[in-house]
Structure formats: C-alpha cells, structure tokens
Amino acid sequence: MSKYKRKNKKPGHREGEVRAKKHLGQHFLTDENVAEKIAKTLSFSGYNNVLEIGPGMGVLTKFLLKQDAEVHVIEIDTESVTYLQENYAELQERIHQQDFLKYNLQEVFKEEAFAVIGNFPYNISTQIVFKVLEMKEQIPEFSGMFQKEVAQRICEKQGSKTYGILSVLVQAFYYAEYFFTVPPSVFNPPPKVDSGVLRLTRKEDFSIACDEKLFFRIVKTAFQQRRKTLRNSLKTFNLPDNIREDTIFGRRPEQLGFQEFINLTLKIQPYAI
C-alpha cells in the first residue's frame, strides 16, 4: 500500500497525492497546460541551472525537465520531498529539503548562474523576491506565479496607486513583464484570489550609481508614508534645509521612477550616517 494512502480522507483528496498544508501556504497547481506555459516563460539562455521553489508534486517540474538545463528543486515539505523522490528518479541528487529563505544556495550552485521559477506560496512570495534581489549577481532570470495583485505591483510603473517598494527595487535591476492571469479553479485547494505569472530578466548592466543599501533604505522609508511628500517622509535622514528645498522633495514616492530614486539617493548620500 502506498505511504500516501490516508484514513479519513478529506473530500477531493485522492490516494497517492500529497495533501496541501495550509500552514505552508500550499495550493497545488493541477492544470498541466498552465504549468507548461509557466515553464516556457524562462528563456533557458545564458545559464545552465534552474531552481524551482516549492515543486509540490512536480506538475511544473516535469516540463522543466524537458529543457536543456540542470533542474534543482527546493522543498520544505517532507511529504512532497518523498513524493518527488519516488516519482522523479532523474532528480534524486537535486532535491533539496530546505527552506529557500534560509538556505545558503551557494552550497548548491557555488558561483554559477541559475534561474529561479515556481508557483510561489502567497505568504512568502515577497520575501522570495527580496532574496532574489540579494542574489541578483547569480540570478539572470526569475519567473513564476504570485497572487495577482502582487505580480501586478512588481511590474507596475510610476504614478499608479499600486506602485510601491517592490516595483522600484525590482525594476532598478530587472525588466519586469506580467504575462497572464490564472484563475483559482486550476489549484487544489483553490485560493480565494486570482494568480498572476510574471518574468524578471536582469538588465545587462544591473549596477546602480549609488550606495545600494542606502537606496533600499530610502525607497522603503519613502513608501512607509506614501501619501506624504518626500520632504516629510524622509525627515528621519535629518537633511540640511538647503537640500530639502530641492524640488524632488516636494513630490510623493509613487511619482518617482527607479532612476529618480537613484538620483535622490545620490543627493542624500553625502549626508547619510
């Protein structure tokens, strides 16, 4: 008897399947057509390695394995890991039972480039993006599925009410493209909202002409009080009055593109502690 058979099965749960766990934010994609479309968002160009986050039962994995790349998967759920080990023999040495947010990926990839893809748990999707930004030197491409409003926010342009911290920080280093919307009906269990698939392609020159840590700090501080002008939201930087009189400080954060935030950081940099 398969170890996945369970007594007192919940409605909709079939024997031989991994049960989605609410505390892990799991919503398993069940539509293979959607999975194949997500796999095809990667170009598989300029890198040999692909890392899938949270593969579950491998509906996306099977399409990644058809590509000319070395596929690794990282999965925190023990039951899913066992399922993958039993059903994807070709992955055996490349299944990493780890927490993506805490794991040192250089243990796997050393200094090699790798793409990141996945059907990301809503509850940690923003943290995943921040970790990708930390490792941008090694990650030329990133794609996958988010809650729709988060995916749209990442790709949003300045001037929108949904434009925010993620929009600025991501777009400083990557080109962001929103591809398509996915309905709740293709998941088990279905989430309560639509999902959206995006791709981030790292810019050829992804360095910025200012202190990066200060840039991140300024963007985050500015959007914490997004309705205020920068003159008010950035008060904690204790800038001299003659600097604060610059016209850029009379604008609100959603009015600035990433390049203007870089210029703002350059103005503040000489006075930052």
From TrEMBL:
Q: Where in the cell is it found?
A: Cytoplasm
Question: Which positions does UniProt annotate for S-adenosyl-L-methionine binding?
Answer: 27, 29, 54, 75, 99, 119
Q: Which GO terms describe its cellular component?
A: cytosol
- Pfam families with a match to the protein in the record: RrnaAD
What EC numbers are recorded for this enzyme? 2.1.1.182
Compositionally biased region (Basic residues):
1-12
- GO-annotated molecular function: 16S rRNA (adenine(1518)-N(6)/adenine(1519)-N(6))-dimethyltransferase activity; RNA binding
Q: Which UniProt keywords apply?
A: Cytoplasm, Methyltransferase, RNA-binding, rRNA processing, S-adenosyl-L-methionine, Transferase
Give the matching NCBIfam families: ksgA
Q: What does this protein do?
A: Specifically dimethylates two adjacent adenosines (A1518 and A1519) in the loop of a conserved hairpin near the 3'-end of 16S rRNA in the 30S particle. May play a critical role in biogenesis of 30S subunits.
Q: What is this protein called?
A: Ribosomal RNA small subunit methyltransferase A
Q: Which organism is it from?
A: Salegentibacter echinorum
Taxon lineage: Bacteria, Pseudomonadati, Bacteroidota, Flavobacteriia, Flavobacteriales
